[in-house]
Amino acid sequence: MQSVIHVNLPQNSYEIAIASGSLDKLGAWMSGEESKPLNLGKKVLVVSNPAIFKRYGERAIGSLTAAGFEVASCILPAGEQYKTLTSLQKIYNLALENRLERSSTMVALGGGVIGDMTGFAAASWLRGINFVQVPTSLLAMVDAAIGGKTGVNHPKGKNLIGAFHQPRLVLIDPDVLKTLPPREFRAGIAEVIKYGVIWDADLFAKLEQSSRLDQLRYLDEEILQIILKHSCQAKAIVVGKDEKESGLRALLNYGHTIGHAVESLTGYKSVNHGEAVAIGMVAAGQIAVDIRSWNKAAAERQNELIKKAGLPTKLPTGLDVEEIINSLQTDKKVESGKVRFVLPTQIGAATVTDRVPPDVLRQVLWQMQ
Predict the structure, then answer these.
(1) Signal peptide span per the entry (predicted)?
(2) Residue 210 neighbours by CB distance under 10 Å
């Protein structure tokens, strides 16, 4: 499996490389032996978490060292609850200790949390240095590693502190998914379903044809390739047309408005990002049906895919509806005090609106308890 997808931007265009075994060629990709020259400096700081670094750190660092890079590493605790300014300080300390320069590179080896933190550290260290994404989770491969959104959480809201900072390269090795825990795989499938609903009807149909979506071992190589390629292409096209989320890119937040509220209200512990997005998609889909912008049959098709992926369709037990509604006011997508929702109009298309009646939102959330 090998393909290269281009993210075309007015400035800072880059490639998403999907290639089996590419982790062992990370140094070659970064030095330009496997792709176009990136002209990166020699100093590299690899940022990861303990479990990922134990499994893949030696291979990544060995590849970088063999390519002539001087490599240091930074290990951060795993989990969304550690995606904070405190964790960021550790990256800064090691960047200073290892004398990273403006030509140096931070490499994110891990899932979306590591990618977001590493990207923000790279965006803010010396006012911006190079950054390479090596995603190890499905969610990061199809979504979080692409597009340059970086940041950390505030206790009152997800990703409220951050910056746009595009990577120089996204290197995806599908082989690493073989060691991904099933729950994390399902979390990634939530984002894949999102692309099918808002952008890619063909991808949606392919997912429907698959007998199971809840574990990697039930997917053949062809459907995995379709999932990775179609999802990355969708993200690349949208980001290429709207890098800073002034319009079209907001569609990628489908399921995320209510999803982010669920994550923050559960302390980023009991519900992971993909599970929260799944809940948010069910809610947004029902809102769309209730205001008659989407039909019930399409919503049921979406919900069946979510169930097939082993993802939740109800709110977590004990979560208060009024707390969710209040939490929505801190969402990044609020404009002039109005919460904006991404709502589907058909399989493969969606729109953004701030005209969701409060009683409809409340009723949908009550029904999902």
Answers:
(1) none
(2) 17
- Between CA 281 and CA 259 the distance in angstroms is 8
The DSSP element (H or E) to which 341 belongs, if any, is strand 341-346
Closest residue by Cα to residue 335 from 247, 258, 265: 247
DSSP E strand boundaries for 79-177: 105-110, 130-135, 149-154, 157-164, 169-172
Asked if residue 116 belongs to a known ligand binding site, the reply is: yes
The answer to whether residues 158 and 260 touch, using CB atoms and an 8 Å cutoff, is: yes
Confidence check: pLDDT of 98 > 80: yes
Whether residue 178 is predicted with pLDDT greater than 80 in this model: the reply is yes
pLDDT tens for 250-269 read 999 999 999 999 998 998 88
User: Residue 164 is encoded by which pair of tokens?
Assistant: 């746009």
Threshold 0.70, pTM exceeds: yes
Which residues does the annotation mark as catalytic? 127, 149, 191, 235, 245, 249, 253, 256, 260, 273
Q: Is 154 annotated as a binding residue?
A: no
How far is residue 42's CA from residue 199's CA, in Å, rounded to a whole number?
40
CA torsion, points 217, 223, 229, 233, in degrees to nearest 10?
Answer: -120
Q: Map out the domains of the chain with their CATH numbers.
A: 2-179 (3.40.50.1970), 182-367 (1.20.1090.10)
